[in-house]
Amino acid sequence: MAPELSNFENDSSSRQQYSAHNPIEQYVLLAKGAKGAACIELIKQVLEAPGVHVFGELLTMPNIEELQNGPHANYYNTLNLFAYGTYRQYLENQSKLIQLTSAMQKKLQHLTVVSLAIKSKCIPYNELLDELDIKNVRVLEDLIIEAIYADVIHGKLDQKNKQLEVDYAIGRDIRKGDVKEIASTLQEWSDSCETILLCLETQINRANTEKQKRIKHKEAIDQEITNLKKAIKTQAVESDEAMATDACRDIVGGLDLRKKPTKSKSLKGCADF
């Protein structure tokens, strides 16, 4: 959506900054005061301008809309084609459109690649050659490389499998009739996200439950190990005490055996006396 122009027109730096991020804006501003031949010249400029790949704002301008029912309807139709169509559609409807310059043709071909990339991230060379009306693979690859350098698409050429692998493509204008389909697609995506989140929460709860079971099992094993250690320690102490008691008895027994002969001698001496 274009910004409010009350202060925007008075702030040249803001206008320049906004135009840098939205190149079509400068043409929308020019279209406000353009009539007839000026509108035609404006359309020619915008179709050739590098960096301008969306045209919806310009199409909705009253001055531009007036062209579709007049003698210059082919200019409006061409602008509409650049907003929503492809190069193949241009070839099929040239009688209703203007003759494209080299710059216009290349831009429309770039936009056609974008439209194909929206449908598939891997586009075969054969499909590109047909849609772009190119007979030579080398010319096709040069066109794709130019589109990549123009930041229209990001990707790489797979010459072995003869296909274009697209990682990114700019957005194109959206028809009003496509809004419901887009909203439906977004709703399906949202529902899928909700389903995935629910599955993740279920898995997390299951994992937490298993974790708690393992923790309790480990605690029970640790307690058993502690009890066994205590029992073994108690048995070892009792065994040591028993051995000490037996040793004392042996010592006492040994002393008694040594004392008895001495006592006998004393008694015998007394008898002799």
3D architecture notes:
This is PCI domain-containing protein. Keywords: Cytoplasm, Nucleus, Signalosome. One of its GO terms (cellular component) is COP9 signalosome. Its main location: cytoplasm. There is one protein chain. With 273 residues, the protein is mainly alpha-helical. The protein folds into two domains: 23-175, no CATH class; 176-235. 71% of the residues lie in helices and 6% in strands. It has helices spanning 5-8, 12-21, 24-31, 37-48, 56-59, 62-65, 73-84, 87-92, 102-119, 125-132, 137-149, 179-272, and strands spanning 122-124, 153-158, 163-169. The protein has a three-stranded antiparallel β-sheet. A hairpin with a 4-residue loop joins β2 and β3 (163-169). α3 packs antiparallel against α4 and α4 (37-48) packs parallel to α7 (73-84).
Sequence-ordered SSE layout with sheet pairings:
Blueprint: H1 5-8, H2 12-21, H3 24-31, H4 37-48, H5 56-59, H6 62-65, H7 73-84, H8 87-92, H9 102-119, E1 122-124, H10 125-132, H11 137-149, E2 153-158, E3 163-169, H12 179-272
Antiparallel strand pairs: 1-3, 2-3
Helix pairs in contact: 3-4, 4-7
In quaternary terms, these chains amount to: single chain
Give the rounded overall mean pLDDT: 83
Helices and strands: which structural class? mainly alpha
Care to count the β-strands? 3
Strand order of the largest sheet: 1-3-2
Ranges where pLDDT stays below 50 over 5 or more residues in a row are 1-20, 263-271
Number of helices: 12
Q: How far is the first residue's CA from the last residue's CA?
A: 142 Å
Give the overall silhouette.
rod-shaped
Q: Can you summarize the main beta sheet? A: 3 strands, antiparallel
Question: Roughly how much helix do the residues carry, as a percent range?
Answer: over 70%
